[in-house]
Amino acid sequence: MKEVHALSSSVTLRSESLLGRLNREWHERALQLFMVIVLAHWAEHLAQAFQIYALGWPIPDSRGVLGLWLPWLVKSELLHYGYALVMLTGIWVLRSGFTGRSYTWWMVAFWIQFWHHIEHALLQGQAIAGMNLFNAPVPTSLVQLIIPRVELHLIYNSAVFIPMVIGMYYHLFPSDEERAHMQCSCAIQPRAVAADAT
Question: Domain extents for the chain?
């Protein structure tokens, strides 16, 4: 029994250490990597919107960049659900590095993404069960009953991205009080402070 408790404590310490490091000394790099993933996803949605609205392609042919080479990938509900889960997990894991206003905005993004994730889970469940809600020909989310899927995903991604950006802004340019509580190196030093340091 003592061995099991010791092993459990060791695993807990290691995971706390990883989460702690991700929100302290690794926070800046972790956020940069996370934002690359977020922006790559945005690029796919914007490419799809460009294909539909600027090039006039039919929606089934407008698959973003990856979908041109791997059409099955874009049609996979698992891919969309997986990305929604990555977003939800990334926002949650990196939240402790934020303080004050940046934390508030970051968590606004989290809760919006949480709902977005529920919608994708509903779509994934329909794909697995082979039965679509409301006898729709394809898996259908609740809000998709009102807003078409392409536009809905642009709205969802905007609704998550905007508070993330506001949170990042306050994180990079914190107030003096917020800076005092930060445990990471993400804050950008004001020019006056940087000039005084030399």
Answer: 2-197
> What is the C-alpha to C-alpha distance for residues 31 and 191, in angstroms, rounded to an integer?
23
* Separation between Cα atoms, residue 49 and residue 148, nearest integer Å: 13
∠85-89-7 over CA atoms, to 5°?
120
DSSP 60: G
- pTM of the full structure: 0.82
| Residues 80-126: tens digit of each pLDDT | 899 999 999 999 999 999 999 999 999 999 999 999 999 999 999 99
Per-residue confidence (pLDDT) for residue 93, from 0 to 100? 97
Give the pair of three-digit tokens for residue 41: 């996803």
Mind giving me the DSSP string for 133-172? GGG-SS---SGGGTS-HHHHHHHHHHHHHHHHHHHHHHHH
Angle at the Cα of 46 from the Cα atoms of 186 and 86, rounded to 5 degrees: 50
